[in-house]
Design brief:
Arc Repressor Mutant, subunit A; six-stranded antiparallel sheet; globular; 15 helices; about 325 residues; alpha+beta; Jelly Rolls; about 15% strand; three-stranded antiparallel sheet; 2 domains
């Protein structure tokens, strides 16, 4: 990759603005926050979409139904979240959970790249980081499993050329997308996030909305416990770990993560099941046993209810993708 050529392309290229100004599709931009679904980008069939943040896009408050990475390549961007302004400079990267209202303004001469990542793609990324206990892994764990969790991470990578080159590589892959581009960028993201964890796990800033901030540490502890013991985890054991009664623990779990203990355990088991189906040759009955279902019929029933297809159909779809 010729970095200077890519930077020249970024400096010259402005994404088409017809989407943003098609008010029949997105409404009046003054009525913030706008919801900009990932399906509106890249022809509606992408799970990952990389683009330049247009300087012509007004700095109105908006949100996505996907994860959002904002990386400043050059200059300065003003990023407003939770009524606070972050002044992001070259090398700064912000990772946001879905449905976090924010606005971004790139100053004149500045270049910023956005990467929108669907929940399915981020789960694949998380599948290779979930054993870690660090600010990045905890953020992904909270965001993947708890629908009400609103937060973001901020990284100061400064003049890290490796991080810059990886962002530019993903951008270049997006410029000429074909049937393989989505999968290629997804796997590039896996490596990218592992690099972030290796280099910046100790310096990344974990920032939450004021409502969630006080409970974020307990939420991470609850999630780590269930994730490490998903086949056998119980509310009674969780209560012992937190020194709560079982009824109080049940209420507290719901307050912290936005759903019941049993619902959270089911989500984690489901994610493990899809990981096994995608990446191993284990039989359906074996997978059910590994995630805590002694009766394979119960596992198949749960999986089909949540995914819309049976485990066998899901595996066939993954193998044919």
């Amino acid at each position: 990759m010729n970095r200077e050529m890519v930077l020249e392309e970024l400096n010259r290229q402005e994404e088409g603005t017809s989407f943003f100004w098609d008010r029949d599709r997105v409404g009046n931009y003054q009525d913030a926050p706008l919801l900009l679904p990932i399906a509106t980008f890249g022809g509606g069939k992408r799970t990952v979409y990389v683009t330049k943040h247009s300087r012509r896009f007004p700095a109105c408050e908006h949100m996505h139904d996907s994860f959002d990475v904002i990386y400043v390549v050059r200059g300065v961007c003003r990023h407003r979240l939770f009524h606070q302004e972050l002044l992001m400079q070259a090398g700064d990267l912000c990772l946001l959970s879905p449905y976090v209202p924010h606005s971004v303004y790139a100053e004149k001469g500045s270049i910023a790249v956005k990467i929108l990542i669907s929940g399915g793609a981020i789960e694949r990324v998380f599948s290779i980081t979930h054993h870690s206990s660090d600010v990045v892994s905890d953020f992904l764990r909270n965001s993947v499993y708890t629908k009400s969790y609103s937060s973001y991470l901020l990284f100061h990578t400064e003049d890290d050329e490796e991080i810059l080159d990886m962002i530019l590589d993903m951008y270049m892959e997006e410029l000429n997308p074909d049937e393989y581009a989505d999968r290629i960028i997804t796997h590039m993201l896996m490596i990218f996030f592992i690099k972030l964890i290796r280099k910046y796990r100790r310096t990344a800033q974990s920032l939450s909305s004021p409502v969630q901030k006080d409970k974020s540490e307990d939420a991470s502890r609850i999630l780590r416990y269930i994730e490490e013991n998903y086949a056998t985890a119980s509310l009674a054991e969780m209560a012992d770990l937190l020194n709560y009664s079982v009824p109080h623990c049940s209420k507290y779990v719901k307050q912290c993560v936005g759903c019941s203990f049993s619902e959270l355990q089911k989500r984690i088991r489901l994610q493990k099941a899809t990981d096994y189906l995608s990446n191993t040759s284990l039989g359906i009955e074996q997978i059910g046993e590994r995630i805590g279902y002694a009766n394979p019929e119960n596992f198949i029933r749960m999986f089909k209810k949540e995914q819309g297809v049976s485990p066998s159909q899901f595996r066939a779809g993954e193998q044919g993708a």
